[in-house]
Amino acid sequence: MSDDYELPRAVVTRLLKSSIQKEAKEAITKAAKIWILYATACANDFCQNSNRSTISANDVLMAMEELEFPDFVPQLKETLETFKKDQASKKAAKKN
C-alpha cells in the first residue's frame, strides 16, 4: 500500500539527473574559473617580480610548482614544446 503514495521512479530519476547534472556543470565551471584566476595571479606575481608586464610560459610553470601542482609541469612542458614546433613549422611553410 505504501507504493500508492510514491512518485514514479522514472520521473524522479529524470528530475534528479537533470538537476544534478546542471548543478554539477555549474559547480565545475565555477571551480575552473576560480582555479584559472588563482593560477594566473600566481604566474603574474612571478612576472612582476621579474619586472615584466607579460606572463611567460616559465611564469606559468613556476606557478604550478608554487601552487603544489608539480605533476602538471612535465606535461605542460611537453605541450609547450609541441606548440613551439607547430608554430615554427607554420612559419617555415609561409616562407616557402
From TrEMBL:
Top-rank taxon of the source lineage equals Eukaryota
Give a yes or no for keyword Membrane in this entry.
Answer: no
Iron keyword on record: no
Q: Which Pfam families match?
A: CBFD_NFYB_HMF
GO:BP terms for this protein?
DNA damage response; heterochromatin formation; leading strand elongation
Question: Where does the Transcription factor CBF/NF-Y/archaeal histone domain start and stop, copy by copy?
Answer: 6-64
SUPFAM superfamilies in the record, alphabetically? Histone-fold (SSF47113)
Q: Care to name a GO molecular-function term for this sequence?
A: chromatin DNA binding
Print the keywords alphabetically: Nucleus
Where primarily located? Answer: nucleus
Q: Where in the cell is it found?
A: Nucleus
| Protein name, per record | CCAATbox binding transcription factor subunit HAP3-related, putative
Query: What organism is recorded for this protein?
Result: Acanthamoeba castellanii (strain ATCC 30010 / Neff)
